[in-house]
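Notes taken during the Thursday session

The instructor put the following on the board and asked us to keep it in front of us for the whole hour. The protein is DUF6894 domain-containing protein. We were told not to look anything up and to reason only from what is written here. First, the residues (102 in total):
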Amino acid sequence: MPRYFFDVRSGSGLVCLDYQGLDCADDAAALDLARHGAGFTSHADCARNPQLTRYRFSVQDAEHRPLFTVPFTELEPDAPPARKRPRGSGRGRTARSRPSVH
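Then, after some discussion, the predicted structure tokens were revealed:
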């Protein structure tokens, strides 16, 4: 799986250099990961911190060739976490009744 690097830049230059990179299936997957914060930030973080609106991801391939940039102002919200089923609501389960005490 190819490795991609997600450097963080501002209008004045480099903020954070990605030395490790992340594995992605292809360029489209790397773009999607950048649009969701690449594990560095999130849409919610940017909403809380206006300073982040000046930042962007500069994404490079495994050979460190520039591919694209994604401004933090264009980060997409993450999907809400899946809701868990309440205990005892699964199929095939029957509720146990307590013995009556007289």
